Amino acid sequence: MTNRIRTERRREALSKTRIVEAAIELLDRAGEDALTFRALAAHLATGSGAIYWHVADKNDLLAAAADHIIAGVMADAVRGSSPQDVIRTMALGFFDTIHAHPWVGGQLSRSPWQYAVVRMLEGVGRQVQALGVPEHTQFNAATALMSFILGLAGQYAAGARHFPRDADRTETRKAFLGAVAAKWLQLDPAEHPFVRQVAKVLPEHDDREQFLAGIDLILAGIERIR
Q: Are 165 and 126 contained in the same domain?
């Protein structure tokens, strides 16, 4: 009886929320490859079995961690503003979150049916409804926004592999894009006039500004179908 009581107390103390928050700390510090149940157990000063009581496997843990992060973004969305402003706030919240936690981008793009994505779709969809978009076009409007946001997630997940976590990301990014731009400028002017033109702005462009411009273009399209 005593052993059972002690076991139940350990399970209560080691909640799923605590496990997820600890996993996020490991993911932010060392990346997805460093997240193992052994490392997590050591971080929590417990056994792996206690963690398995709350999460089935690493995929389950990653999904829970991503949802924890996304839930925070949704909670911080502006209340009482116009639907367009709420969508922009949510979108920039997603951008800043994926920038701060590149592993979230990988998780969101890897499994589009997980609850974090459903949570995002619900938040975006409600604002599309609030815009007065006809019901038969609401799905297309909401998923256009979602596709753009999740495309960013995949882009950042891929970019994280190019930029070491301990590097100066700003300078590393600038150098990487500068090298890409140099290759673009070597392309045939007759076959690639546009790519050569944008190569000049590629190394210095602001990702956040570019992302919001894309959201505004989609919102402008949605306005037309109202």
A: yes
Instruction: Check: CB of residue 19 under 8 Å from CB of residue 13.
Output: no
Per-residue model confidence as pLDDT tens digits over 156-175 = 666 655 665 555 567 777 88
Contact present, 195 and 187 (Cβ < 8 Å)? yes
Select from 11, 8, 24 the least CA-distant residue to 50.
Answer: 11
Domain that includes residue 186, residue range = 56-224
Same domain, 85 and 178: yes
Cβ 59 vs Cβ 114: under 8 Å:
no
Are 25 and 123 part of one and the same domain? no
Asked if 71 and 93 sit in the same domain, the reply is yes
**Residue found under tokens 């076009």:** 137
**N-term to C-term CA, the chain:** 65
Q: Global pTM? A: 0.83
